[in-house]
Specification:
Elements (H helix, E strand, L loop, with lengths): L1 H12 L7 H19 L6 H19 L8 H10 L7 H20 L5 H23 L1
Helix pairs in contact: 1-2, 2-3, 2-5, 3-6, 4-5, 5-6
Length: about 140
Amino acid sequence: MKVFATLSAFALAQDVRQMNSHERLDSVSDNIRTWMDTYISEHNRADKYREQFDILVNYISNKLDMNCAGENQEEVEELAADDAIAELGAEGEIKKRMRILNRVHRVHLLDCKRPVKAQRRINKLTSKFLNALAKVQN
Protein backbone atom coordinates (compact mmCIF):
# COMPACT_ATOMS: atom_id res chain seq x y z
CA MET A 1 0.00 0.00 0.00
CA LYS A 2 2.87 2.34 0.75
CA VAL A 3 4.21 1.73 -2.75
CA PHE A 4 1.05 3.18 -4.26
CA ALA A 5 1.11 6.18 -1.93
CA THR A 6 4.66 6.89 -3.06
CA LEU A 7 3.75 6.46 -6.72
CA SER A 8 0.71 8.69 -6.30
CA ALA A 9 2.80 11.37 -4.65
CA PHE A 10 5.28 11.19 -7.51
CA ALA A 11 2.49 11.39 -10.07
CA LEU A 12 1.04 14.42 -8.33
CA ALA A 13 4.43 16.12 -8.28
CA GLN A 14 4.33 16.25 -12.05
CA ASP A 15 1.61 18.46 -13.38
CA VAL A 16 -0.61 16.12 -15.38
CA ARG A 17 -1.74 18.94 -17.60
CA GLN A 18 1.81 19.37 -18.91
CA MET A 19 2.41 15.70 -19.60
CA ASN A 20 2.14 14.58 -23.19
CA SER A 21 -0.09 11.67 -24.14
CA HIS A 22 2.67 9.04 -24.03
CA GLU A 23 3.82 10.19 -20.59
CA ARG A 24 0.25 9.95 -19.28
CA LEU A 25 -0.14 6.47 -20.72
CA ASP A 26 3.22 5.35 -19.30
CA SER A 27 2.37 6.74 -15.87
CA VAL A 28 -0.97 5.01 -15.53
CA SER A 29 0.24 1.74 -17.08
CA ASP A 30 3.23 1.60 -14.71
CA ASN A 31 0.88 2.08 -11.77
CA ILE A 32 -1.39 -0.70 -13.01
CA ARG A 33 1.58 -3.03 -13.50
CA THR A 34 2.68 -2.30 -9.94
CA TRP A 35 -0.82 -3.09 -8.73
CA MET A 36 -0.72 -6.37 -10.63
CA ASP A 37 2.63 -7.28 -9.09
CA THR A 38 1.38 -6.41 -5.61
CA TYR A 39 -2.07 -7.96 -5.56
CA ILE A 40 -2.50 -10.66 -8.21
CA SER A 41 1.01 -11.94 -8.89
CA GLU A 42 0.12 -15.26 -7.22
CA HIS A 43 -2.91 -15.85 -9.44
CA ASN A 44 -2.45 -18.69 -11.93
CA ARG A 45 -3.29 -16.42 -14.90
CA ALA A 46 -1.33 -13.36 -13.79
CA ASP A 47 1.19 -13.72 -16.63
CA LYS A 48 -1.59 -14.03 -19.18
CA TYR A 49 -3.31 -10.91 -17.80
CA ARG A 50 -0.02 -8.99 -17.86
CA GLU A 51 0.50 -10.00 -21.49
CA GLN A 52 -3.04 -8.90 -22.41
CA PHE A 53 -2.51 -5.61 -20.61
CA ASP A 54 0.79 -5.02 -22.41
CA ILE A 55 -0.94 -5.67 -25.75
CA LEU A 56 -3.60 -3.12 -24.83
CA VAL A 57 -1.03 -0.50 -23.84
CA ASN A 58 0.90 -1.08 -27.08
CA TYR A 59 -2.33 -0.74 -29.06
CA ILE A 60 -3.15 2.58 -27.39
CA SER A 61 0.44 3.79 -27.72
CA ASN A 62 0.48 3.05 -31.45
CA LYS A 63 -2.81 4.90 -31.85
CA LEU A 64 -1.33 7.92 -30.07
CA ASP A 65 1.19 8.25 -32.91
CA MET A 66 -1.52 8.47 -35.55
CA ASN A 67 -2.76 11.71 -37.13
CA CYS A 68 -6.22 11.28 -35.61
CA ALA A 69 -4.87 11.59 -32.06
CA GLY A 70 -5.73 14.88 -30.45
CA GLU A 71 -6.45 16.38 -27.07
CA ASN A 72 -9.62 17.69 -25.51
CA GLN A 73 -8.61 20.40 -23.02
CA GLU A 74 -11.69 19.97 -20.78
CA GLU A 75 -10.95 16.26 -20.48
CA VAL A 76 -7.32 17.02 -19.63
CA GLU A 77 -8.47 19.15 -16.70
CA GLU A 78 -10.71 16.31 -15.47
CA LEU A 79 -7.85 13.86 -15.94
CA ALA A 80 -5.61 16.03 -13.77
CA ALA A 81 -8.24 16.06 -11.03
CA ASP A 82 -8.87 12.33 -11.35
CA ASP A 83 -5.22 11.39 -11.03
CA ALA A 84 -5.19 12.15 -7.31
CA ILE A 85 -5.84 8.78 -5.72
CA ALA A 86 -6.76 8.64 -2.08
CA GLU A 87 -6.21 5.61 0.11
CA LEU A 88 -8.45 3.00 -1.49
CA GLY A 89 -8.62 -0.73 -1.12
CA ALA A 90 -7.12 -2.93 -3.81
CA GLU A 91 -10.45 -3.22 -5.62
CA GLY A 92 -11.17 0.51 -5.58
CA GLU A 93 -7.65 1.28 -6.65
CA ILE A 94 -7.67 -0.88 -9.79
CA LYS A 95 -11.12 0.40 -10.75
CA LYS A 96 -9.85 3.96 -10.48
CA ARG A 97 -6.62 3.21 -12.38
CA MET A 98 -8.49 1.52 -15.21
CA ARG A 99 -10.96 4.43 -15.29
CA ILE A 100 -7.99 6.79 -15.66
CA LEU A 101 -6.62 4.61 -18.48
CA ASN A 102 -10.02 4.76 -20.15
CA ARG A 103 -10.04 8.54 -19.78
CA VAL A 104 -6.52 8.83 -21.28
CA HIS A 105 -7.82 6.86 -24.24
CA ARG A 106 -10.92 9.04 -24.51
CA VAL A 107 -8.96 12.32 -24.20
CA HIS A 108 -6.52 11.52 -26.97
CA LEU A 109 -8.12 8.98 -29.29
CA LEU A 110 -11.82 9.75 -29.52
CA ASP A 111 -11.51 10.95 -33.13
CA CYS A 112 -9.69 7.81 -34.31
CA LYS A 113 -11.34 4.85 -35.98
CA ARG A 114 -12.79 2.15 -33.73
CA PRO A 115 -12.61 4.10 -30.45
CA VAL A 116 -14.79 1.49 -28.72
CA LYS A 117 -12.29 -1.34 -29.23
CA ALA A 118 -9.82 -0.16 -26.58
CA GLN A 119 -12.63 0.79 -24.22
CA ARG A 120 -14.06 -2.72 -24.52
CA ARG A 121 -10.62 -4.23 -23.82
CA ILE A 122 -10.14 -1.97 -20.79
CA ASN A 123 -13.51 -3.04 -19.35
CA LYS A 124 -12.75 -6.70 -20.01
CA LEU A 125 -9.36 -6.51 -18.30
CA THR A 126 -10.87 -4.65 -15.35
CA SER A 127 -13.29 -7.50 -14.73
CA LYS A 128 -10.48 -10.05 -15.11
CA PHE A 129 -8.33 -8.15 -12.60
CA LEU A 130 -11.21 -7.96 -10.11
CA ASN A 131 -11.97 -11.68 -10.46
CA ALA A 132 -8.29 -12.53 -9.99
CA LEU A 133 -8.14 -10.31 -6.91
CA ALA A 134 -11.19 -12.03 -5.43
CA LYS A 135 -9.63 -15.47 -5.98
CA VAL A 136 -6.28 -14.45 -4.51
CA GLN A 137 -7.90 -12.91 -1.42
CA ASN A 138 -9.98 -16.03 -0.72
